[in-house]
């Protein structure tokens, strides 16, 4: 099974960053954890980071914030997915 992230679903629909963080922790985080733990391939476009979470804030800007614990959680999960993908590619060669 593969997972494709529809980055067009991020279109500034959250009124505030706190609303996005609540959604991430309660819903999306569970999906990402399942993806990481099962080594499921996860595909996204490279410009996903430019998608808007709120009217004014992109995912990239949000991830660069140092004072947001949820941003740190997202970065760790993304790092785990990248590392697992590299390990898998290394095993295949």
Description:
- The protein has 93 residues and is mainly alpha-helical.
- The protein has a two-stranded parallel sheet.
- Helix 1 packs parallel to helix 3.
- It is globular, with a radius of gyration of 14 Å.
- 6% of the residues are buried.
- The model has no long low-confidence stretch (mean pLDDT 83).
Describe the structure in brief.
With 93 residues, the protein is mainly alpha-helical. Helix content is 54%, strand content 4%. It has a two-stranded parallel sheet.
Class computed from helices, strands and strand pairing = mainly alpha
Spatial order of strands in the largest sheet? 1-2
Shape, per Cα inertia axes: globular
What is the total tally of β strands? 2
The whole-angstrom Rg is 14 Å
Major sheet, described briefly?
Answer: 2 strands, parallel
Average of per-residue pLDDT values: 83
The low-pLDDT segments are none
Q: How far is the N terminus from the C terminus? A: 22 Å
């Amino acid at each position: 099974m593969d997972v494709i992230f529809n980055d067009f679903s991020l279109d500034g629909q959250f009124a505030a960053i706190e609303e996005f963080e609540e959604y991430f922790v309660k819903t999306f985080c569970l999906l990402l954890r399942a993806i990481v733990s099962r080594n499921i391939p996860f595909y996204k476009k490279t410009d996903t980071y430019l998608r808007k979470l709120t009217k004014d804030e992109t995912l990239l800007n949000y991830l660069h914030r140092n004072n947001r614990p949820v941003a740190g959680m997202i970065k760790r999960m993304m790092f785990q997915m990248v590392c697992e993908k590299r390990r898998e590619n290394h095993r295949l060669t």
